[in-house]
Specification:
Blueprint: E1 3-10, H1 18-27, H2 30-33, E2 36-44, H3 49-66, E3 72-77, H4 81-95, E4 99-104, H5 109-115, H6 118-130, E5 133-136, H7 139-149, E6 154-156, H8 163-166, E7 179-183, H9 192-203, E8 210-214, H10 219-228, E9 235-239, H11 243-251, E10 255-258, H12 267-274, E11 278-282, H13 287-290, E12 297-300, H14 305-317, H15 319-336, H16 339-350
Parallel strand pairs: 1-2, 1-3, 3-4, 4-5, 5-6, 7-8, 7-10, 8-9, 10-11, 11-12
Helix pairs in contact: 9-14, 12-15
Length: about 350
């Protein structure tokens, strides 16, 4: 008889972001469903603060009445409120002697932790110490978290990509050379404002340069800046992109550009690699473990606007280099970052 696993996290159908995507792919995984009976418990849904609070309370009360049916609890946790919400579940389950796998997301986790009071830091440490195993997204995160928590049960499982779903987004690189895509929450952390400045620099030499900015976040603020700088011909603010829109956008570009100030291992970069896009990003989180200079993209320092513009200029002027990196990206995802490989690693740690 298969063991019953309850996945706890944001709704994969009602919430946005990488964590919801990871959960949805787990629920659909043949690798995992062949060995376990997987079910989902929604601990969070997007909405206004009143709705989020009410739903979180309702969700935990419901959980107290159903937890006995399950053998293993795979809990997806990010920073800020997510940590303390999941702490309720983790502390409750520890008292019941249940197996807990904690899966850490949230690019700002270290920033969040370092800002806490000493009392709250101790509370977070206790949450981590309760888990039987802790999954993090990169080797760098493992090193960083080990320095803080001194736990030996931290393991690395990189995010994986469903290659089959994304094949429709592969296009001829040379036909889309001038087009770039930022895919993620629009704001300072993802480098959205730096990108606008880089486009402003490039526009003087490359009139046809085009940047699509897709995601939620500070959309109205960014639209105003684009309008004030007279960049509407070069920058298109798409807003939130569902899966079909994402495929459409990926088909239209040669390059994913993500000049983030902090990250774990962004799904956007892996999705871009899987669809043969050149990658421009920063040396934060797990990104430098995946994107290597002159092999499959260009890595810059966060906040280096001139460096960002120079990297984009390389794409605009050296198509053979871009094509070589694009081919390397598809190969790299197939060999090391497929969804199946990720789920095999998760399966082995659920056992």
């Amino acid at each position: 008889m298969n063991k019953k696993v309850l996945i706890i996290g944001p709704s994969p159908f009602k919430s946005k972001g990488g964590m919801a995507t990871v959960i949805q792919e787990m629920l659909e995984s043949e690798v995992l469903n062949n060995e376990f009976d997987l079910e989902m418990h929604e601990s969070y849904r997007d909405g206004n603060i009143f709705y989020r609070l009410l739903f979180s309370i309702y969700s935990f009360i419901k959980f107290v009445f159903i937890y006995k049916k399950y053998d293993i609890f795979h809990i997806h946790m990010a920073s800020y409120g997510s940590t303390f919400r999941k702490g309720l579940y983790i502390n409750f389950l520890k008292e019941k002697n249940k197996k807990i796998i904690l899966h850490i997301h949230g690019a700002e986790y270290l920033i969040f932790y370092n800002k806490l009071s000493e009392k709250k830091k101790l509370k977070v440490k206790k949450i981590w110490e309760i888990a039987d195993k802790i999954i993090v997204l990169s080797e760098q995160w493992k090193k960083d978290f080990f320095k803080i928590f001194k736990l030996e049960n931290i393991i690395v499982i990189n995010n994986g990509i469903n290659i089959k779903k994304l094949k429709l987004a592969i296009s001829r690189t040379e036909e889309k050379q001038n087009n770039f895509l930022l895919l993620g929450r629009l704001g300072k952390r993802k480098g959205a404002y730096d990108l606008i400045k880089a486009i402003e620099i490039l526009k003087e030499e490359f009139l046809q340069v085009k940047l699509y900015m897709a995601g939620d976040g500070e959309i109205e603020e960014i639209k105003k800046i684009v309008k004030d700088k007279k960049l509407k011909e070069n920058i298109e603010i798409v807003g939130w992109a569902d899966f079909n829109k994402k495929i459409e956008l990926l088909r239209e570009v040669s390059t994913i550009v993500l000049p983030s100030y902090n990250e774990g291992l962004p799904m956007t970069i892996l999705e871009g690699m899987a669809t043969g896009k050149f990658i421009i990003s920063t040396n934060v989180g797990g990104i430098p473990e995946v994107v290597l200079n002159n092999e499959n993209g260009i890595i810059i320092e966060p906040g280096d606007i001139q460096g960002l513009a120079t990297a984009m200029k390389k794409v605009l002027t050296d198509i053979e280099f871009v094509k070589k990196c694009s081919e390397n990206n598809i190969k790299k995802i197939e060999e090391s970052f497929s969804m199946e490989k990720m789920h095999i690693k998760i399966r082995n740690n659920l056992r």
